[in-house]
């Protein structure tokens, strides 16, 4: 019983389950590194967890690690908000321990909570560098099977999505997590051109210079709202996310700042920086439409 564990061991065992479920592998050294415990203590934690859930873990002899078994059923109730925070900041229980992130994951905050089983399938595929066959609900074509190679998860300000290589279109794209209704791992390795290192839009960093909209009567108030330095707010973001950032904060991205300042208090003064940025179509003033697949 979980209640029989001490508070400190309960935290370690919960982390153990989290790591196995979302990263797809667990080693004794993971517990030692995360909590600074001795090998004997880490072994006791593994033993305690296997007593709590005998069918949850299987041992991979070749990789020398534990993996979630087919019958895996979480013992602990993890909130989607907490899991996404772990993925975003690293598995650190809110502490700044400088731990390496389990998967590439970026974003300013989450508004939609995806299904944890689906999220775990996606993150495990990322860690293992595997493709997924998914049933995806697209706004344009409805439910359809797709073969994706997930490379990162990101918060676009409205919902979480998966950055993935779409094998049917031979390109990287964004897929809303909550629209994935089924996902299964595809056997076999993936190619280098399908992995994160080949995603030019993810690798490219864009410098955004945001200022009060020229149509605003009291620009100093806007400068104060956003803590601007010298009347400008400088933001660095990935090209794959730039359009989402601009849309989330209703930043007028038109070269002539033509949008209504009543609903767009900010203006992107260096609009040429969006040249070649695919997500720019999502930005106010740059395009009237555009969304993840």
What's the CATH architecture name of the largest domain? Answer: Roll
Helix fraction by DSSP (H/I, runs of at least 4):
25-40%
**What would you report as the Rg, rounded to the nearest angstrom?**
22 Å
Mean pLDDT: 88
Element pattern in H and E:
HHHEEHEHEEEEEHEHEHEE
Taking the alpha carbons of the first and last residues, their distance comes to 44 Å
**Total tally of structural domains:** 3
Count of helical segments? 8
* Uncertain runs: 92-99
Query: What is the CATH level 1 assignment of the largest domain?
Result: Mainly Beta
The helix/strand class is alpha+beta
CATH topology name of the largest domain, in short, is SH3 type barrels
Summarize the main sheet: 6 strands, mixed
Total number of beta strands: 12
Broad shape? globular
- Report the portion of residues in β strands: 15-25%
How would you explain this protein's 3D organization?
This protein is 28% helix and 24% strand. It has 293 residues and is of the alpha+beta class. The chain folds into three domains: 2-77, Winged helix-like DNA-binding domain superfamily/Winged helix DNA-binding domain (Arc Repressor Mutant, subunit A), CATH 1.10.10.10; 105-198, Roll (SH3 type barrels), CATH 2.30.30; 204-282, no CATH class. Strands 3, 4, 5, 6, 7 and 8 form a six-stranded mixed beta sheet that branches. A four-stranded mixed beta sheet has the order 10-9-12-11. A two-stranded antiparallel ribbon has the order 1-2.
Output the keywords.
4-stranded mixed beta sheet, 3 domains, alpha+beta, SH3 type barrels, Arc Repressor Mutant, subunit A, 8 helices, single chain, 6-stranded mixed beta sheet, 293 residues, 24% strand, 12 strands
């Amino acid at each position: 019983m979980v209640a029989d564990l001490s508070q400190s061991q309960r935290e370690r065992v919960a982390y153990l389950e989290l790591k196995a479920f979302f990263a797809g592998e667990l080693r004794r050294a993971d517990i030692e590194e995360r909590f600074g415990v001795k090998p004997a203590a880490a072994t006791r934690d593994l033993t305690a967890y296997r007593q709590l859930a005998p069918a949850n873990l299987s041992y991979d002899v070749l990789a020398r690690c534990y993996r979630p078994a087919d019958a895996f059923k979480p013992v602990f109730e993890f909130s989607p908000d907490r899991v996404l925070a772990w993925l975003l900041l690293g598995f650190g229980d809110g502490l700044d321990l400088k731990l390496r992130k389990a998967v590439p994951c970026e974003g300013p905050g989450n508004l939609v909570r995806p299904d944890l089983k689906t999220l775990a399938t996606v993150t495990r595929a990322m860690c293992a560098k595997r493709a997924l066959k998914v049933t995806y609900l697209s706004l344009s074509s409805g439910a359809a099977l797709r073969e994706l190679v997930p490379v990162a998860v990101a918060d676009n300000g409205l919902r979480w999505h998966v950055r993935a290589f779409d094998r049917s279109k031979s390109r990287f794209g964004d897929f809303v997590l909550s629209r994935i209704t089924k996902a299964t791992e595809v056997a076999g390795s993936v190619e280098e051109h399908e992995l994160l290192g080949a995603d030019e839009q993810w690798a490219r960093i864009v410098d955004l210079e945001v200022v009060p909209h020229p149509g605003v009567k009291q620009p100093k108030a806007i400068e104060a709202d956003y803590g601007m330095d010298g009347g400008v707010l400088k933001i660095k973001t990935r090209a794959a996310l730039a359009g989402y950032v601009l849309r989330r904060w209703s930043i007028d991205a038109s070269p002539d700042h033509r949008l209504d300042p009543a609903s767009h208090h900010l203006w992107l003064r260096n609009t040429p920086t969006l040249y070649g940025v695919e997500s720019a179509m999502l930005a106010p003033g740059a395009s009237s439409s555009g969304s993840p697949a």
